[in-house]
Design brief:
Elements: E1 3-8, H1 16-24, E2 29-32, E3 41-45, E4 48-52, E5 65-68, E6 73-74, H2 76-88, E7 97-99, E8 103-104, H3 107-120, H4 132-141, H5 153-174, H6 182-197, E9 200-201, H7 203-212, E10 217-220, H8 244-251, E11 260-266, E12 269-271, H9 284-293, E13 305-307, E14 309-310, H10 311-321, E15 325-329, E16 339-348, E17 351-353, H11 360-364, E18 367-374, H12 391-404, E19 408-412, E20 420-422
The protein binds guanosine-5'-diphosphate, 6-O-phosphoryl inosine monophosphate and magnesium ion.
C-alpha cells in the first residue's frame, strides 16, 4: 500500500496536520501537493505545539522525508523562516526536498492579493492575503516564476520583467499604487537562492522511484474539498485543487499509483472567510463550538465560522475524492450537548435534496434539514478504543459513517498524537 492521499473533507482546518503527523512515523515521504502558506496545520507533540504553514507535517517525524511538490506555491522568505524556526526548536530539517517546478510567491503577489480584495469590497473572498491567488494566476497565465529560475540570474530578471509589465500598468493606472521595481524583486529573490539551492530536487522522479521500491508516500492536502477551485463553492474558494486529483498533478504521480484516499472530517463544521455555509450557527451553540473547539485561524487568527455536521458535504467529499476512509476529528468537542443536530439534507425553495446542488445560487439558498442525535456528557478524551466511548458517542459516529459513504477508520478525541482511536489501520 505505497501511496496515500490525506485531505480535508470540508472547508479546511479539519485536523490534517495532526492526522499527517500521526502517520508520519510509519511513512517514508510526506508530500504537500498544492496551496502554500495559506495553510495552517497544527501539530501537538507532547507539550510542544507546532504551527506549520508551508512545510509538510511529516517534517516533525525524524524518519520521514518532507517534500514540497511542483503544485505548491512557495514564498521563499516564509520557507526559510519556517525552517529556521524549526531548527531553533531542535527539529532536523535537512531532508527537505523542494520541486524546482514549484512556482514562487513574490512580494508583488501578496500586494496584489490584498489590493484585489480591497477593490472587491463586499464581494471579497476573505483570502489569507498571502499572495496565493495571484501566484497561481501567473502560473496559468504563463508568466510565473519557478523555484529553478532562482539559479539563473538573467532568466530570472527577464521573467520578473515580463510578469511586472502588465501588473505595473494595473497597479499604477487602476489601483493608483506605485509601480514595482523588477530590479528590487530580483535582488530580494536572489538573496534566497543560495540558502534554498541544497533543497531543490527532481521530486517527481524521486517519488515515483520511491513508490516503485515499495516505500510509503503520503500526500498531505492543504485547505479542503469545498475550497477546491473546481469542486468547491466557487468563487469562495482557494486557487488550487486540494481534492485527490490534485495530488497527481501537484506531485507528478499517476492516479494508478494511489491506493488510499483519507478524508479528514471534523465532527462539526467550520469555515474561514466568505461564502455559503448552510449549517452555520449564529447563536450560543456556535459560540460554544468556537470556544470549546478553539476555532481561531492558525494563519490569520480570524474567528472560524462554526456550525453542525453536514452529511451532504461529507457525501460529496466521498464522491469527488473517491474516499476510502474518513478520519473523524474533534469528537471530544461535542461532549456536553443533550442532543446534537446533524444536517441530513437541504431544502431549496421547498424541494428536498440529499446531494450538493451544483448550481451556485441554489447552494446559497440551501436550508439545512436536521436530524437530532442524543448527546453524551462523559469525558471521552482518554478513550483508546471504540468500545471506550459512551453508547451515544458510538451511535453518533456510526450515524455519521452511514450518512457519509466511507468507513470512519480513526477518531480524534483530543489534539495530541495519542488522543486517537484507531479502528482500521491506514497502512
Ligand atoms: P488543519 O489545517 O486541517 O491541519 O487543522 P488546524 O490545525 O488548522 O485546526 C485543527 C485544530 O484542532 C488544531 O488546533 C488541532 O490541534 C486540533 N485538533 C486536531 N484533532 C483534534 C481532536 O481530535 N480533538 C481536539 N480537541 N482538537 C483537535
Ligand atoms: P488549512 O490547510 C481554512 C480560505 C480563506 C479564504 C479562501 C481563499 O489550514 O486547512 P486564499 O488565501 O487561499 O486565496 O483564500 O480559502 N483558506 C482556508 N480556510 N483553512 C485553510 O488551510 C485555508 N486556506 C485558505 O480563508 O476563504
Ligand atoms: Mg488549518
Amino acid at each position: 500500500m505505497p501511496a496515500l492521499v490525506l485531505l480535508g473533507a470540508q472547508w479546511g482546518d479539519e485536523g490534517k496536520g495532526k492526522a499527517t503527523d500521526l502517520l508520519g512515523g510509519s511513512v517514508d515521504y510526506v508530500v504537500r501537493y498544492q496551496g502554500g502558506n495559506n495553510a495552517g496545520h497544527t501539530v501537538v507533540v507532547g507539550d510542544q505545539k507546532y504551527a506549520l504553514h508551508l512545510l509538510p507535517s511529516g517534517i516533525l517525524s525524524p524518519g520521514c522525508t518532507p517534500v514540497i511538490g511542483n503544485g505548491v506555491v512557495v514564498d521563499p522568505s516564509v520557507l526559510l523562516s519556517e525552517l529556521s524556526g524549526l531548527q531553533e526548536r531542535g527539529v532536523d530539517t535537512s531532508k527537505l526536498l523542494v520541486s524546482g517546478n514549484a512556482h514562487l510567491i513574490t512580494s508583488y503577489h501578496a500586494t496584489l492579493d490584498k489590493t484585489t480584495e480591497r477593490f472587491l469590497g463586499k464581494r471579497r473572498i476573505g483570502t489569507t492575503g498571502r499572495g496565493i491567488g495571484p501566484s497561481y494566476a501567473d502560473k496559468i497565465n504563463r508568466v510565473g516564476i519557478r523555484v529553478q529560475d532562482l539559479f539563473d540570474e538573467s532568466i530570472l530578471m527577464q521573467k520578473i520583467e515580463a510578469a511586472l509589465d502588465f501588473k505595473n500598468q494595473v497597479l499604477a493606472k487602476l489601483y493608483n499604487r506605485r509601480a514595482i521595481s523588477a530590479q528590487q524583486v530580483a535582488e530580494e529573490l536572489l538573496g534566497y537562492a543560495e540558502q534554498l539551492k541544497g533543497y531543490v530536487a527532481d521530486t517527481t522522479l524521486i517519488l515515483n522511484d520511491a513508490i516503485d521500491e515499495g516505500k510509503v508516500v503520503l500526500f498531505e492536502g492543504g485547505q479542503g474539498t469545498l475550497l477546491d477551485v473546481d469542486h468547491g463553492t466557487y468563487p469562495f474558494v482557494t486557487s488550487s485543487n486540494p481534492t485527490a486529483g490534485g495530488a497527481c498533478t501537484g506531485a507528478g504521480v499517476g492516479p494508478t499509483r494511489i491506493s488510499r484516499v483519507i478524508g479528514i472530517l471534523k465532527a462539526y463544521t467550520t469555515r474561514v472567510g466568505a461564502g455559503p455555509f448552510p449549517t452555520e450557527l449564529f447563536d450560543d451553540d456556535g459560540e460554544a463550538l468556537r470556544r470549546i473547539g478553539g476555532e481561531f485561524g492558525v494563519t490569520t487568527g480570524r474567528n472560524r465560522r462554526c456550525g453542525w455536521f453536514d452529511a451532504v458535504i461529507a457525501r460529496y467529499a466521498t464522491r469527488v475524492n473517491g474516499l476510502t476512509d474518513f478520519f473523524l476529528t474533534k469528537l471530544d468537542v461535542l461532549t456536553g450537548w443533550e442532543q446534537i443536530p446533524v444536517c441530513v439534507a437541504y431544502e431549496i425553495e421547498g424541494e428536498r435534496t440529499t446531494e450538493l446542488p451544483y448550481n451556485q445560487s441554489d447552494f446559497h439558498h440551501a436550508k439545512p434539514v436536521y436530524e437530532y442525535l442524543p448527546g453524551w456528557s462523559e469525558d471521552i478524551t482518554k478513550a483508546k478504543t471504540f468500545a471506550d466511548l459512551p453508547k451515544n458517542a458510538q451511535a453518533y459516529v456510526k450515524a455519521l459513517e452511514e450518512m457519509s459513504g466511507a468507513p470512519i477508520s480513526a477518531i480524534g478525541v483530543g489534539p495530541g498524537r495519542d488522543e486517537t482511536i484507531q479502528i482500521n489501520s491506514f497502512l
